Amino acid sequence: MPTTPTIARIWRGRTRPDVADLYDSYIRTEGIPPLEKTALGVQLFREDRPEESWFVTISYWADMQAMTAFTGGEPTRVHHLERDPELLIELPERIEIHRILVDRQGLR
Questions:
Q1: Domain count within the chain
Q2: Which partner for 67 in 22, 60, 61, 83 could form a disulfide, CB atoms 3.0-4.6 Å apart?
Q3: In which domain of life is the source organism classified (predicted)?
């Protein structure tokens, strides 16, 4: 199995500003650790806007087979966290899966 990622799996969700800090903490403790154990890498992004806060999680995978093993068969299936219905404005219906075409790090 290759050790460099060829696939990026992208999840997006948004919260109200009044629960954004709570969701930030929640996703870091409940959503990120399973990815850290299985993916080659993971990033969490947050963008605060006046009316909502956006969260984006990108996990990196060696190939579709590795990602499919993590998701239990369907890589595009959204795995909602237990408190997502309470904290997110709406439940995301899809996951984006992208092939990585260029991977250059350390650019400044």
A1: 1
A2: 61
A3: Bacteria
